[in-house]
Amino acid sequence: MTDLFSKFDPFIAQRAALLSTGITDPFSLVMDQVLSPTRAICNGRDTILLGTYNYMGMTFDADVIEAGQRAMAEFGAGTTGSRVLNGTFRDHRDVEEALKEFYAMDHAMVFSTGYQANLGIISTIAGKGDYVILDIDSHASIYDGCKMGDAEIVAFRHNDVDALEKRLKRLPPEAGKLVVLEGVYSMMGDVAPLVEMVRVSKENGAMVLVDEAHSMGFIGQNGRGVAEEQGVSDDVDFIIGTFSKSVGTVGGFCVSNHPKFEVLRFICRPYVFTAALPPSVMASSAASIRKLMHGSNKRAHLWENSRMLHQGLRDLGFKLGTETPQSAIIAVIMPDLERGAMMWEALLHEGLYVNLARPPATPAGMTLLRCSLCAEHTAEQVTGILARFDRAGRKIGIIG
Amino acid sequence: MSDTVQDQIYGLIGQFNKKGVALTNASTFAGDLEWDSLTVMDFVAEVEDAFDIIISMNLQAEIETVGQLVAAVARLKA
């Protein structure tokens, strides 16, 4: 018998080699207690959280929690059913209304996760004979959506407008085309040049989908994301988003002005063939989205934090993923996986949690310490974060 | 036509063939040339631009050897 697991041997060996150095496993962290959006007890230690995508700190918002508690008491713990059968409760409709208000769009469809939103929308709307043209650094959920569908998949170099345009022009003019972009790319924290990309897409007859998972809530005047910030919202056909970052709960969505959008509720398999989210999650999400509409002060503070951390890390001598702070993600580039893991552990011992990101999730085979800021981080916490980076970086020899 | 395509592709492989592996049409990109996915990505973009074609990811998944690539490009150019 061939052991189906033997193909995983290289991965098992790589992981064993890393752990044999005695290092804390970066991928098995347990938070014993979560004290606030920015603090938790990890391995018995009071730890500042700098790797949770909890950009707007809504996880502990009193109104968000209360809305969820009320819905759980009134509607029960779960839906036990698909959105198209018995799984649509009052609050599923309400959160879709909240999204339509937030984005000023005609239609909104809520999925059980952001991953499923990309999986469902991309695989359903791009069919046989159609083309999906995507940035090579796209998130796994976008690639998986492509794999699940029957369209031809064409990749272009990251954020390269010229490469996108050339490929669009080589495709049959009459074929259906979907260009898939992200507002903020979550590994490096860089922003897409949507103005030019949306323009060349439209000039070549393509529909455009933008994943705004890492920009919702704090980029753009109303927090709608990079498309709003760059003034191209009206030309974007589909916006994909998630509740598991700024909204502070879990779930995914797509908003659109397409007049036939509602048909997707019946034909999009990752929407139909899964259970709807619990009513408590829906009520918390709706409360959170409506608060995010009026979150301009928090947005301003988040940007202050991002600029302060970016400048501080640069001054300490760390190599960063972007020249300027473009989002709430700041990627610190590590020389290799081993020293990246050592630096990650040293920071954890200092009481700071960041994400250790490595290939294949990262571009160009890089190991990154990815920091995501929260609007609830105080200036004192950011100062403390920099002091920890300074000590750990010297100890591991990343900085001089 | 096919010969020119072959010459051009061998030329394009050259700049990515860091290990100086001797090329035949039976050479595989992953096995013989030991290219990782990043190298493949850059190489595909070069080939696409050189021939003004699209090599979709669906097609890339079917191409393992240099000869298969030459045949695919010749077909796409035809």
What would you say this structure looks like, in words?
The complex is a heterodimer of chains A (400) and B (78). Chain A has 2 domains: 18-56 and 296-396, Aspartate Aminotransferase, domain 1; 62-292, 3-Layer(aba) Sandwich (Aspartate Aminotransferase, domain 2). Chain A has 14 helices and 16 strands. Chain A has helices spanning 9-19, 62-75, 90-103, 114-125, 140-148, 161-170, 194-203, 226-229, 264-267, 269-272, 279-292, 296-316, 337-349, 379-396; strands spanning 31-36, 39-42, 45-49, 107-111, 131-135, 152-156, 177-182, 184-185, 190-191, 207-211, 238-242, 252-256, 329-334, 352-353, 355-357, 367-372. In chain A, helix 13 crosses helix 14 (379-396). The relative contact order of chain A is 0.16. Chain B is an all-alpha fold. Chain B has a single domain (2-77), classed as Non-ribosomal Peptide Synthetase Peptidyl Carrier Protein, Chain A. Chain B is 56% helix and 0% strand. Chain B contains 4 helices and no strands. In chain B, helix 1 crosses helix 4. The A-B interface holds A 131, 136, 146, 152-157, 163, 166-167, 170-171, 360, 364-365 and B 36-38, 41, 44-45, 48-49, 52-54, 56-58.
